Amino acid sequence: MRKIALLPVLLLQFHLLLAQSQAAKEENPLETILKSNPAAFQHIINNKDSLRVQIVYTQINRNRRNKASFREFPFNVQNNTYYYPASTVKMPIAFLALEKLNELNIPGLDMHSTMITDSSAESQDYVYTQPHAIDGRPTIANYIKQIFLVSSNDAFNRLYEFLGQEYIQRKLREKGYPDAIIRHRLQISRTSEQNASTNTIHFYDTSGNLLYSQPAQISKAVYPAVDASLGKGYISNGKLVKMPFSFNQKNRVYLQDFHHMIQSVMFPERTKRKKRFNLKDADYAFLRKWMGAYPEEVDFPKYDTGNTLTAGNKALYYGSGKQADPGIRIFNKIGGAYGFLVDVSYVMDLENKVEYLLSATISCNSDGIYNDDHYDYETVGYPFLKELGRAVHRYEIQRKRTHRPDLQPFVLQY
Hints:
- By secondary structure, the protein is an alpha+beta fold.
- It is built from twelve helices and 15 strands.
- The chain has a five-stranded antiparallel β-sheet, sandwiched between helices. It has a three-stranded antiparallel β-sheet with strand order 3-5-6, with helices on one face.
């Protein structure tokens, strides 16, 4: 009787071992992709830690009703491995700017309202006009457009000031990104205290009527500790300082967090409500349009490169920028600074009926010196992102699917 009682237990253990064995044999497709092209990736694999390479790839599968499901595969993703997110932080700031407008819910106030940024301290800028807008008016809509088209630092700084540190931190934490840190303006040098202080901002309608005033703010945000001193030296005031460069007071957002943010905007209906940004249908359409646009597709300002689409801001597939394939639409945000390159993207191929999410970052600083403007973007970073994007794309074209996606909802008019 005792042996009979043990039989179900032994069978259960056998099936568990079998399942574990089968799971072990199922290799991460990212590793398969990288290993299948040693000429392009063996150096990356061998030096993944020193190059601080991280990759996140998500396969998207559709059911017969075109509903998406996701399988996410990371490669060398380690949250304790710091990388500088550079301009990629502009993406969640654009999302949050629209969310804040929706929360204010003031009649007449929207992304197209005139936004006047006043100077509340000596270190702050004031902005009354926007030369990149066809009517000269600064608006949240135009700032978002400039963020995704040409990665404008000025546009980011204006939205950063509209949101403020505390709002940014609270909102990202509520959405499941507690370690995300966006604490400073870009391109301009400011102290921590100056970055905590944000401008007075006024919104007007097109007739000049005041819709909303936001007073100057001083943030009391307390950030998670960052311990990231990298390299062997840096340039300061034209001289080499022979000690690691500290990123302790810089922005930090984990790659998987960026990946999940863009996934939530491309697929809000498949994202848990608490992780979504508070956006309207028109907001989603607006963001997708400019995340996927090429500079040549806008009427103003005019970016004239003949009859071709240039892909300089679509590194995951095009590298440092060649003629774009009109059949492939990439919704993304790229960033590059301090020798780090990062790109976060959703890719769709209308001809081959494939789609996927792909994000990656790499350090391009072989000499270990920061602030010297001698980085390996063209020899290491861009070639890696291009080869990675194309290798994943080839894999996706060959990957078997039960149902091909209907991508028409993402086909936008430019």
